[in-house]
Amino acid sequence: MIPQREFKYRRSELMRQMKDGVALLVSAPAAVRNHDVEHEYRQDSNFYYFTGFKEPESACLLVPGAKKDKFILFVRPREREREIWTGYRSGVEGAVNDYGAGKAYPIEELPKKLEEYLAGAKMLYYTLGVRPELDKMINEELNRLRAHVRSGASWPTEFRDPSALASEMRLRKS
């Protein structure tokens, strides 16, 4: 089992390389096998490498320029009825207490919070083209920021795939 301090070190190393960008990493989607039975879940390798979080329907924002909360997780909330069928969920509290997130929100709040965290960033580290629904959401949030250009709003104008940095980091084993 990998200790949380290792994930924290990996995040800090990635953020050191990013400088004034913001990274959005997302979990792998759950795959349904037939109607209501899911395949055994396997987390996205890069998402797990930086967070240690193994649950689907989650996202991570890394904000190196933030004064306080540089590691934000968006996760599925705890729901007793769902947990009976699909297993334990860490929830918002677990994301903070067990995984070291500075802040955690229910995954449904990602679109609303994304605009807040993207404002002022020069670069967005995000893998475009893999999750069309997220690509669309990011576009919508960037358009909201562009609409406030006259009031001094700024937004990321450069995009980079964080996989390149992650791949380089993963070459050296800890």
Structural notes for this entry:
- By secondary structure, the chain is of the alpha/beta class.
- The chain contains 7 helices and 8 strands, in the order αβββαββααβαβαβα.
- Strand 7, helix 6 and strand 8 form a beta-alpha-beta unit.
In short:
The chain is an alpha/beta fold and 174 residues long. 40% of the residues lie in helices and 17% in strands. The chain is globular, with a radius of gyration of 16 Å.
Mean pLDDT: 92
Taken from the alpha-carbon principal axes, the silhouette is: globular
Beta-strand content estimate: 15-25%
Enumerate how many helices there are, as a single number.
7
Q: Approximately how much helix is present in the residues?
A: 40-55%
Q: What structural class do helix, strand and pairing data support?
A: alpha/beta
The main sheet comes to:
6 strands, mixed
Strand element count: 8
Oligomer: single chain
Question: What strand line-up does the widest sheet have?
Answer: 6-5-4-1-7-8
Topology:
Layout (H helix, E strand, L loop, with lengths): L3 H15 L2 E6 L5 E3 L2 E2 L6 H7 L7 E4 L8 E5 L4 H7 L4 H7 L5 E4 L3 H9 L4 E3 L6 H15 L11 E3 L1 H10 L3
Parallel strand pairs: 1-7, 5-6, 7-8
Antiparallel strand pairs: 1-4, 2-3, 4-5
Helix pairs in contact: 5-6
